Fold this sequence. Notes:
Elements: H1 3-23, H2 28-36, H3 40-65, H4 73-89, H5 97-107, H6 111-139, H7 151-170, H8 172-186, H9 189-206, H10 210-239, H11 245-259, H12 271-282, H13 287-319
Amino acid sequence: MDKEKIVKATFILITLLIAYFLLSQISLPMIAATLLSISMPSLLASFALYVLMNLFRAFRYSVMTDRNLYSNNWKMFTIVCTHNIANNVLPFRTGELTFVYLAKVQLKIATAIGAVTLLLSRVYDIFIICILVLLVLLIFPGNYGLINGIVPYIVLVAFGLFIFITLFIAYQKLFIAVLNTAYRWFKNGMLIRIINRLEETTQFYSNQTFQTSIGLPLILTVIIWVLNVLSIYVLVVGIGITISPWAIFIGIMLVVIAASIPVPGIANFGSFELIWAFVFSALSVTRETAISSGFAVHLIALTYAIALWLSTTALDRALH
């Protein structure tokens, strides 16, 4: 058996083990009952918010890559939909690479620019999530169980990401100078390739204003995550979880941060539900409800991604 088959078999085994562990705590009919408890208006409202979120995500990528791409926002939207389905299915977040590839093939965006855009967008995402969670904890203080104990870590992450964003945008030339010095000492081929890519991105960002390189993308990121939380919030309320709205908000945000960590598995099954169950159990939701709601939300989110990808792909082919 070659390495690729061994890796695939390992991913499937991990997925099955985690899923089996969680399903042993509840029954399959309970998951079905949880899914059926969500009304059709709630599902439609949640899906509408999901579509709107992805439209703003496509617009953010357009802003971060090139202003001239505003006219190609539909094509960027189709890329985002394909990117979403790849991320939802492939292990270790390897689906992220589809954005870089499709942006290059379909919109002629340089690989280095696509990769940096993807990296910065993920940094913006986690930074804004941390800020939103801290704002909720500050404005609506309360007993959020174990969540209260991780506030210092959230502050630390937010501060670190703020420093990273500032340094990356403002001091790339200094970073390149440091790498050039290292190259002269070590003559490493990998360093010169990194330097060349950084020089490309430095030239790109030097032609952008603060509004397009940091300001507007951060504003769009806030809108994206408010829409994302509202989309999931509608499902959580539909399921019948009765903790405070702000506890649900914090729970969703923390699940998103943890679920973005590259982990082995297929379609994030098992790992997402495990994280969801842990977070919402910490927020005083019963174990059975936390596990069943995690499976329900994940299945619905995967359905949304597939439906949006299929519909945009079909429409894109019809238009072209």
